[in-house]
Amino acid sequence: MNPIGLPLRRAAVLVLLGVVALGGAAGCSPAADSAPRPAPAQESLPTGTPATTSTATDVGWVQLMTPMNQQAVKLLTLAAQRAAEPRIRDFAVRLRIGQEAELSRLKTLLTRMGLPGTDVHAGHDMPGMVTERDLEAARAAEGPAFDRLVLVQIRDHLRQSAQVSRSEITSGGRADARELAAALVTARETSLAELERLPGAVRALG
User: Fold this and answer.
1) Residue 78: C-alpha distances to residues 52, 83, 199 (Å)
2) Other beta carbons within 10 Å of 63
3) pLDDT digits (tens, 9 = 90+) for 2-23
């Protein structure tokens, strides 16, 4: 497989984020995306295209979901250790296990698609991404304030990654990527329902 250039990968992410209608120009920071972008990939495959042929949407999705999960795992690790509410700690442990299992599948897919394992979005402000600033704020917070921060950040991560994964299901070209995206959506819907029932969720999430 020929390597896919960074501008195309960024364009693919913008396609994904545009499909879920985030309101305004979502995606990487303007400075990171000032270079001209190629036309978005087609949302449907031409007749006869193999199900294992990667489209720009597939590339954009797997290269966005991988760091999103990696960053969420860091926050969930903190929550499992430091949440004041025991039910939030238990939730963080179980969700971290699920996100790590997804990461294993995402990394396998990256390899199968011939893509590098590096984070092409490092330093970018992506919707639903737990940033290093978020992690610093979490480390500085304690007690109920820490719990509220975790609930908000993880809720946003789950919602956004579910939306982007739904776009992969409808617009992606690879059957294995669409299958994994469907599994992620199901897992996030279940986790969101549980998160909203946790103590303090009503106050934290408004």
Assistant:
1) 37, 8, 18
2) 25
3) 444 444 444 455 545 554 433 3
At 123, give phi and psi (nearest 5°). 85, -5
Tokens 């609930």, residue located: 151
pLDDT digits (tens, 9 = 90+) for 129-150: 999 999 999 999 999 999 999 9
Which residue type does 158 have? L
For every residue of 10-35, DSSP letters joined together read HHHHHHHHHHTT-SSS-SS-GGGG-S
28 in a domain, yes or no?
A: no
Domain assignment present for residue 139? The answer is yes
Residue 179 lies in a domain: yes
Q: pTM for the whole thing?
A: 0.77
Left (φ > 0), alpha (ψ -120 to 50) or beta: where does 76 sit? alpha
Q: Please give the tally of structural domains in the chain.
A: 1
Is residue 110 in some structural domain?
Answer: yes
* Tokens coding 203: 């106050």
